[in-house]
Amino acid sequence: MRTNRIIYSLSVVLLVCLFSNPVNAQYSEYEIKAAYIFNFAKFIEWPASKTNPDTIVLAIYGPDPFGTVLEKTMIGRKAQGKDWKIIRTNTVSELDRCHIVFIADVGKYETIQLIEKIKNKPILTIGDEMMQFCEMGGIVNFTPQFSDQQFEINNDVAKSKGIFISPKLLLLAKIISNKEDEF
User: Fold this and answer.
1) pLDDT at 22
2) Euclidean distance between CA atoms 136 and 117, whole angstroms
3) Cα–Cα separations (whole angstroms), residue 167 to 45, 134, 161
4) Of 69, 8, 71, 82, nearest to 41 (Cα)?
5) Which of 21, 34, 84, 141 is the most exposed, fewest CB within 10 Å of its CB?
């Protein structure tokens, strides 16, 4: 019971922090996801060796479902004292300089190839309601609208890349583990 109250309280605090506008306003799906991504960056630490120490680089890989929402949400605001840079690409080689890669509407085979090519790099991968994304080696995946949690996290993959995810964020997620299949 106490754990449920803590999770509920943290969820409410996170949602209130997501928006500077009145809480009762209507937001689109991708305005909410942009706010989540913005706040994810506040609860994640990348290795010191990661480039662009003054900027968090977010790449949209594949079709862009956000339009201008990301710029409206992030440009001019800071996360961990860092400015945001947003790029859109379909080229894996451009991802080396990124901190976060959002992947939407990309086929399973292409997703597997993408994750494989960046698996040893400290890049936070975020899937957009992709089946088995975290099991394939992705780190964060948004879940369908009426799921118990709004996102799932594979912290084993994050740790293997040297990315530290705050326990405060982990409490809000469904945790996916690579060790679940081991007996």
Assistant:
1) 46
2) 13
3) 12, 18, 17
4) 82
5) 21
Count how many Cα atoms sit within 13 Å of the Cα of residue 105 in the half-sphere of its side chain: 7
Distance of CA 142 to the CA centre of its chain: 8
Query: Is the residue at 183 inside a domain?
Result: no
Question: Does 182 or 70 have the greater pLDDT score?
Answer: 70
Identify whether 31 is part of a domain: yes
Q: How many CA atoms lie within 13 A of 91 on its CB side?
A: 5
Q: Check pLDDT > 60 for residue 143.
A: yes
Angle at 74 between CA 160 and CA 37, to 5 degrees: 35
Flag whether 82 is in a domain. Answer: yes
The CATH number covering residue 31 comes to: 3.40.50
Would you say residue 26 lies in a domain?
yes
Q: Which domain holds residue 14?
A: 2-178
Query: Distance between CA 73 and CA 87 in Å, rounded?
Result: 14
Cβ contact 100:37 at 8 Å? yes
Domain total for the chain?
1
Whole-angstrom Cα distance, residue 37 to residue 50?
Answer: 19
| pLDDT in the model for residue 107 | 93
